[in-house]
Amino acid sequence: AQTKDKNYWVQLAESVTIPVDNIIDGKPVQASSGKTFTCISPIDGRVLAEIPSCSQADADAAVESARKAFDSGVWSQTAPVKRKKVLIKFADLILQHADELAILETLDMGKPIGDSTAIDIPATANCIRWNAEAIDKVYDEVAPTHPNELGLVTREPLGVVAAIVPWNFPLIMAAWKLGPALATGNSVVLKPSEKSPLTALRIGQLALDAGIPAGVLNVIAGFGKDAGEPLAKHMDVDGLVFTGSTAVGKHLLSLGATSNMKRTFVECGGKSPNIVFPDAPDLKAAAKAAAVGIFFNQGEVCTAGSRLLVHNAIKKEFIAEVVEAAKSLQPGHPLDPDTSMGAIVDQQQMSRVLGYVDKGTADGATIVAGGKQAMSESGGFYIEPTIFDDVTNQMTIAQEEIFGPVLSCIGFDSEEEAIAIANDTDYGLAAAIWTSDLARAHRVSRKVRAGSVWVNYYDAGDMTAPFGGFKQSGNGRDKSLHALEKYTELKATWMNL
Ligand code: NAD
C-alpha cells in the first residue's frame, strides 16, 4: 500500500482536478451571468479556481429542474428500497473518491488532511448510508379510530428543498441535509458556502454517477445574497434547511415566512460551556479534552467548547494543564498528516478572530497562551491556539461566537453559579459537564439549556441521536430518525368503509 505522507498529498494537490461546474438538471453548467468568484486556498493564499457565481436566474433554473423531477415521480414516487439502493451507491462512490474529496476539502477550507480523511469523508458517506438504510424501515401509522373507518397517518416528502450550508464542515453539513432529504423522496437544490464550494460541486457529479436522476440534486455555488436569497424567497421551494450563523438564520426564517410559508429549519451558532467540577474523574484528561474541544477544526466548530467554566478551587492548575495540552495543537501545514491544527478559512475570518483577541485584551482578560497570527511566511491564514484567563461572562469574548481558536476561561464557586453562567447566553447548542457525582451530572445536565450535553467527554455523537440547538442556536434537528420529520409533511387520510 502507498504511504500517504505529506509528499503524497502535496502531489495530489498539484494533480487533482478542481471541480468548477454547477450541476443543474443533471448537467454541468456555468453561471448564466458569466460571472465567477475566485476560490483561494487558505493554506498558502494560492488561487485554486474561478467558480461560476450563481444568481437569481440560476437559482430559478435549479428550482424549476427540481420541481420537474419531483412532479415526474422519478424519485419521489419510487419505493424507499429503490432510493436506498441508489443512495448506498452514492455513499460508496464518496468513499471510492475519498482521497480526491479529502484533498479538495483541505485545499478549500484549510483543515488538516488527517481530519479530512479520518472524519469528514467517512462521516459524509456514513450519513448518506445511514439515512438510506433507515428509509425502508420507517412505518406509517393507522389511527385508532372507529372500525367502520380507516385513518391513515402517512409522511410525504415536502417537495423541493433548498439546502444552504456553511464552510466549516462543507461535506458533512451537506450530507446532514442531503441524507434525509433525498431518502424521503424530495428534490434538492444545494447551495454550498462561497468560501468552500468545491466538494459540494464534486458530489453533485457523483450523485449523478450513482444513478440519482437528473434534477433530483442540483448544486449551485455563489454568494448568500446572490444565490441563497432567491432560494429562500422562491415561491416554488417547499422546504428551506440552513446551517450557518444565527444572524443569517433569523433572516432566512423571515424570508421563508413572508414568501410562501415554506417549512424553514435553521441550525445556527453556539457559545458552548464546558463545566469542570473539582471531582472530575480525571482532571488531566478533562484538560486535554477542553483543549481539543475548542481547538479542533481551528475552533471553527458550532459546538466548540469556547467557554471553559472551572471551579475556582482548581482553576489555576487546570488552566495550566489546558495551556500544556494546547502546545501539541499548534498550527502546521494542512497537507502534513501529523498536523492537528490547520489554516483559518480565509483572510477575512482570520482578521475577525484576531479582532476578538484584541477586544478580549482591551476588556481586561489575560492572554495565557497564543494570541497571534502564525506561519505568516506561508502566505496562508493561521492563528495560534489562544487562551484567555480572567474572563467574565459579560465580556464580548464570552458572549459572541468567535468561530476560531480562542478559549475564554471563567471561574465559579458553586453548582448554581456554574449553571447560571452556562445559561447566560443567547445560544443553546451544546454543553459538557465533568464530575464523578452521578446526581450532580443528572442535575446539571437537566438544567443546562442545550441541545447536546456531554458528561465526562466532549463532542461525542453519531447518527443515532438528534443534533441541534435550544434558543438562538436553531429550531430544528439534524441526524437520527427525528431529522426525517422535517423533510416530510404529515397527512391524515380518512376512509369511510
Ligand atoms: P453564514 O451564515 O455566513 O453562511 C452560511 C450559508 O448561508 C452560506 O452558504 C452563505 O453563503 C449563506 N448565506 C449568507 N447570507 C445569506 C443570505 N442573505 N441569504 C441566503 N443565504 C445566505 O455562516 P458561515 O460563516 O458559513 O458558518 C459559520 C456559522 O455556522 C457559525 O455560526 C456556526 O456556529 C454555524 N454552524 C452551525 C452548525 C449547527 O449544526 N448548528 C454547524 C456548523 C456551523
Short key terms for the protein model shown above:
497 residues; alpha/beta; seven-stranded mixed sheet; five-stranded parallel sheet; 20% strand; binds nicotinamide-adenine-dinucleotide; Aldehyde dehydrogenase; Ald_DH_N; Ald_DH_C; Ald_DH_CS_CYS; oxidoreductase
3D architecture notes:
InterPro entries: Ald_DH/histidinol_DH (IPR016161), Ald_DH_C (IPR016163), Ald_DH_CS_CYS (IPR016160), Ald_DH_CS_GLU (IPR029510), Ald_DH_N (IPR016162), Aldehyde_DH_dom (IPR015590). Pfam families: Aldedh (PF00171). This is Aldehyde dehydrogenase. Keywords: Oxidoreductase. Belongs to the aldehyde dehydrogenase family. The chain is of the alpha/beta class and about 500 residues long. Helices cover about 40% and strands about 20% of the residues. It is built from 16 helices and 21 strands. It has helices at about 5-15, 55-70, 80-95, 100-110, 115-135, 170-185, 200-210, 225-235, 245-260, 285-295, 315-325, 345-360, 395-400, 415-425, 440-445, 480-485; strands at about 20-25, 25-30, 35-40, 45-50, 140, 150-155, 160-165, 185-190, 215-220, 240-245, 265, 275, 305-310, 365-370, 375, 380-385, 385-390, 405-410, 430-435, 450-455, 490-495. The strands form 6 sheets. It has a 7-stranded mixed β-sheet, with helices on both faces. Strands 9-8-7-10-11 form a 5-stranded parallel β-sheet, with helices on both faces. Strands 5-6-21 form a 3-stranded antiparallel β-sheet, with no helix packed on it. The longest helix is centred in the N-terminal third of the chain and has 23 residues, at about 115-135. The chain is globular and about 70 Å long. The chain starts with 5 loop residues before the first helix and ends with a strand. The model has no long low-confidence stretch (mean pLDDT about 100). Nicotinamide-adenine-dinucleotide (NAD) binds near residues 173, 224, 229, 252 and 268. Nicotinamide-adenine-dinucleotide binds near residues 251, 252, 270 and 473.
